[in-house]
């Protein structure tokens, strides 16, 4: 049996008045007497009447909904960002529609089409690791559609953006390893075209330069799907551990890659930090419960989500076109665990 929601025609029929009168009463119009308004609103409450959001959006030309595109909802970082987004959206009466690309550009393009078809008012985007052509976003922007990029931002596109200070975060993590006597440090990264990869690599190299260590490109490994496929991480780590001069430490540049490196070491009986030190980016709440406790860069994910959502809603509700876009860069926190403890010389 097909479910049909109660509408104003049902209210009008039950009360013996016209649908236009019911509509005006629910809008608190001066054209309807207080007695009739009370009659209509009381009955609407009794039957738990909810306005049709599609009809309402057509009348107001706004759906009061926003879309979100992330790589993977199961990722700790993205799930926390979504928590921040939804808290601000709910405060402002917006519904959130969440989609995930699974690091696939075709999925991302389909997500954009789906969200457009839902007549959302704006979109929050963290691009997939496969995305090199941003036409699907520029097409939306040219229509005047508000987009805010977060985490994996796109520098060459206009629009508000929120991320951490990726250069500083990776610099501090690498510096920590260097100070603990790990001078041969591998860098495991997401796709090279991603903003976060480029900036975190920049921070890694900056720290090595300060210690007058020559950059060894063979220690830099890219996983084009961000570790979503176990094989790509295993291939990268196999190459590192088969080197004659194996690395002393690994800096893993994303949540997924960090966990994948730990899993690989456990599977291969490689002891952390005795055989190799590990430092990563992770927002997991269990990092300190692992053995050894993991040294990680923790991102202010919930705060990032809140800021991105406020920027988007402000853009949606602005009565004038935004001319100056804000780029906000938040500090990250380095949490020290035993996975990178001081190496004995």
Description:
The chain has 345 residues and is of the alpha/beta class. The protein folds into three domains: 8-51, no CATH class; 63-164 and 301-330, Rossmann fold (3-Layer(aba) Sandwich), CATH 3.40.50; 166-298 and 334-340, Response regulator (Rossmann fold), CATH 3.40.50.2300. 42% of the residues lie in helices and 15% in strands. The protein contains twelve helices and twelve strands. The chain has helices spanning 8-15, 19-26, 34-46, 53-60, 76-91, 105-117, 135-142, 166-179, 195-210, 230-241, 255-267, 301-317, and strands at residues 65-70, 95-100, 122-125, 147-150, 161-164, 185-189, 220-222, 249-252, 277-281, 295-298, 327-330, 333-335. The radius of gyration is 26 Å and the shape is elongated.
């Amino acid at each position: 049996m097909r479910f049909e929601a109660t509408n104003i025609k049902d209210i009008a029929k039950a009360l013996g008045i016209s649908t236009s009168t019911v509509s005006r009463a629910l809008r608190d119009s001066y054209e309807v007497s207080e007695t009739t308004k009370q009659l209509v609103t009381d009955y609407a409450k009794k039957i738990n009447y909810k306005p049709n959001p599609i009809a309402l959006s057509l009348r107001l030309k706004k759906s009061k909904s926003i879309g979100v595109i992330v790589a993977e909802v199961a990722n700790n970082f993205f799930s926390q960002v979504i928590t921040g987004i939804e808290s601000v959206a709910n405060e402002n009466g917006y519904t959130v529609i969440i989609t995930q690309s699974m690091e696939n550009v075709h999925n991302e393009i389909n997500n954009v089409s789906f969200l457009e078809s839902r007549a959302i008012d704006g979109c929050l985007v963290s691009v997939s690791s496969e995305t090199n052509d941003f036409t699907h976003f520029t097409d939306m922007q040219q229509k005047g559609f508000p987009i805010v990029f977060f985490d994996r931002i796109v520098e060459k596109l206009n629009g508000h953006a929120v991320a951490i200070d990726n250069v500083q975060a990776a610099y501090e993590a690498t510096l920590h390893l260097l100070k603990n006597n790990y001078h041969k440090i591998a860098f495991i990264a997401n796709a090279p075209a991603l903003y976060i990869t480029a900036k975190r690599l920049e921070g890694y190299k900056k720290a090595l330069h300060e210690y007058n260590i020559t950059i060894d490109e063979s220690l830099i490994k890219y996983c084009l799907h961000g570790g979503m496929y176990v094989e790509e991480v295993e291939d990268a780590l196999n190459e590192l551990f088969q080197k004659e001069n194996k690395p002393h430490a690994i800096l893993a540049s994303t949540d997924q890659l960090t966990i994948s490196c730990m899993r690989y070491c456990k599977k291969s009986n490689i002891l952390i930090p005795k055989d190799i030190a590990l430092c990563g980016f992770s927002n997991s709440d269990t990092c300190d419960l692992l053995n050894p406790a993991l040294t990680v860069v923790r991102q202010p994910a919930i705060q990032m989500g809140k800021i991105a959502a406020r920027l988007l809603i402000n853009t949606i509700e602005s009565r004038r076109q935004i001319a100056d876009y804000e780029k906000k860069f938040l500090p990250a926190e380095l949490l020290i665990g035993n996975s990178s403890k001081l190496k004995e010389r």
